[in-house]
Specification:
Blueprint lengths: L3 E4 L5 E4 L3 E7 L1 E6 L5 E5 L5 E5 L6 E4 L5 H22 L4
Antiparallel strand pairs: 1-2, 2-3, 3-4, 5-6, 6-7
Length: 94
């Protein structure tokens, strides 16, 4: 199973179970299904942020603590691998 979680900051937790990326701890829970093709984009600097950018649906940006970046990048890698494998399954054989 590809289940993985990473804490972005003291208030926000990202969880990926292989089909849905969820963000807990903000106002409400935010969910991105793999068919939305979400990816994580990181910015650094004085106030680092991670932005969830789906192909379909709204983006979500939240602050992350720099010392948590490795865990967030590991989650982003797992998400990218699943996204790539599911997009290959949807493409017709040529």
């Amino acid at each position: 199973m590809l289940w993985y979680e990473a804490q972005a900051n003291d208030n926000a937790l990202l969880v990926f179970d292989g089909s849905v990326l969820e963000v807990f701890g903000l106002s409400g829970t935010h969910r991105y299904h793999i068919w939305q093709e979400p990816r994580l984009q990181f910015s650094d600097g004085a106030r680092p942020r991670v932005t969830i950018i789906p192909r379909r649906g709204p983006c979500l940006s939240l602050a992350y603590d720099a010392h948590r970046l490795d865990g967030l990048r590991a989650l982003a890698d797992r998400l990218a691998r699943v996204r790539a494998s599911t997009s290959e399954e949807r493409e017709p054989a040529g």
